[in-house]
Amino acid sequence: MSSNKEFINILNKNEMDKRIAQLAQAEALSDARQEGREEGRQEGQTLATVTAVQKILQKKLNLSPESTTSRLSRLSAPQLEALLDAALDFQSASEFESWLEMNV
C-alpha cells in the first residue's frame, strides 16, 4: 500500500508542477502582452505628438511634414513635448532650427 501512496503522491506532485509551470507561463504571457500594450500606447502618443508638431510647423512656418519628419524622428518623447510647447511661439523657420540646435 505504501508504494501506491508514494506513486499517487508522485503523480500529484507532477501534476502540481505542471500546473505551476502552466500558471507561470500564462503570467509571463500576460506580462508580455501588457508590456506590448504599454509600448504601443507610448508609440501612439509619440506619433500623435509628432503629428501635432508637424501641423503647427506647417501652419505657422509653412514647413512641410516631409521636410521635418527625419529631424523629428530623432527626438525623444520629452524633447517632442518640449518642442510642441515651443512651436506654438515660433515666428520663423530659423527659430525652429535654433531650437533644434539648442535642444538636440
Question: Care to describe what's here?
Answer:
The chain has 104 residues and is mainly alpha-helical. The protein has one domain (2-103). 88% of the residues lie in helices and 0% in strands. It has four helices and no strands. Helix 1 runs parallel beside helix 3. The chain is rod-shaped and about 90 Å long.
Topology overview:
Blueprint: H1 2-61, H2 65-73, H3 77-87, H4 93-103
Helix pairs in contact: 1-2, 1-3
What is the gyration radius calculated from CA atoms?
27 Å
How many strands appear in the DSSP assignment? 0
Termini separation? 77 Å
Instruction: Tell me the β content.
Output: under 5%
Domain count: the total is: 1
Spell the H/E element sequence.
Answer: HHHH
Shape: rod-shaped
Structural class: mainly alpha
Average pLDDT number: 86
Largest sheet: none
Structure in a nutshell:
This protein has helices at 2-61, 65-73, 77-87, 93-103. It has 104 residues and is an all-alpha fold. The longest helix is centred in the N-terminal third of the chain and has 60 residues, at 2-61.
